[in-house]
Amino acid sequence: LVTVGSEIYTALRSYPGRVTVEVTGMAASAASVAIMGADKVCISPTAQIMIHKALLPWVSGNSDDLEKASNALKASDRAIVNAYVSKTGLEESVIIDMMKNETFMSAEEAVEKGFADEVMSFEGREVVASFGTGMLPQAVIDDFFANKSSRKNEIEAMKLDLEKEELLKGL
Fold it and tell me: What does DSSP assign to residue 127?
């Protein structure tokens, strides 16, 4: 998956326009590498970013095979570190320690450390509809409840018709 994260990172960096990424849940593992390619990373106050060292869960074999796997993992780690350092400006040693510890960051921590540029804000947005403030006209509310009742009556009538048909079939 590291290669997928790298491909997305490179595609975002190569895009001639300005790229903004919104992290709304968890940007973990390869996703955390991919988002580093954006010009701007906005993160929801409830979202997280997680970084860790590269993994090869299916490794088996003799000592030579394991050494090859270890070298591949070290190369992947160096590539990942490049993306994180480029975005955050943190020292490589700091990034490597964070990766060793499989670091989970809240939105605020991600911004403080440079993995994200800002925490998304939902303040100042215009309310579209609200029962409590009267912004949704009473006529709309009344119509909703009237139609709900009407639909319920229609469904009950259909059920009765079906029951009648079943009874007539049995005769």
Answer: P
Amino acid making up residue 131? F
The single-letter code of the amino acid at 59 is V
Per-residue pLDDT of the chain (171 residues; tens, 9 = 90+): 578 999 999 999 999 999 999 999 999 999 999 999 999 999 999 999 999 999 988 888 999 999 999 999 999 999 999 999 999 999 999 999 999 999 999 999 999 999 999 999 988 766 555 555 555 666 766 676 666 666 677 777 777 777 777 777 767
* Structure-token match 């912004």, residue found: 135
What's the predicted TM-score (pTM) here?
A: 0.71
Could you tell me how many residues make up the chain?
171
Local structure of 123: helix, strand or coil: coil
Tokens for 120, please give them: 């998304």
Q: Where are the alpha helices (DSSP H) in 39-137?
A: 63-88, 92-100, 107-113
- d(CA 167, CA 171) in angstroms, rounded, equals 7
